[in-house]
Amino acid sequence: EEPLLMPAMGGSLPDYVWTKILGVPAVMTPYANHDEANHAPNENMEVERFIKGIKTGAAVLAYLGEMRG
Helix, strand, coil shares of the chain as percentages rounded to 5? Predict the structure, then answer.
């Protein structure tokens, strides 16, 4: 059975370059805290989550690179 894909991220990300122009799938994983208040005067992000997000992104890229052999 094919996976169900549900777009759930707002904003104007350049995702179309990968998916529409280059025809490759894109993966995005949000790692912000629940109360980050995007674009509000009190917008914030926990530094630990930011660092963990960078490490997660690097791990995903390494895994995908290994899949290609």
Answer: 40, 0, 60
pLDDT of the chain, 69 residues: tens digit per residue: 988 776 666 666 777 788 888 998 887 777 788 888 888 999 999 999 999 989 998 998 899 899 876
Q: Which two tokens stand for residue 12?
A: 């104007």
Number of domains in the chain: 1
Place of tokens 């995005």: 28
Q: Would you list the DSSP string of 40-59?
A: STT----HHHHHHHHHHHHH
Query: Does 62 reside within a domain?
Result: yes
pTM beyond 0.85: the answer is no
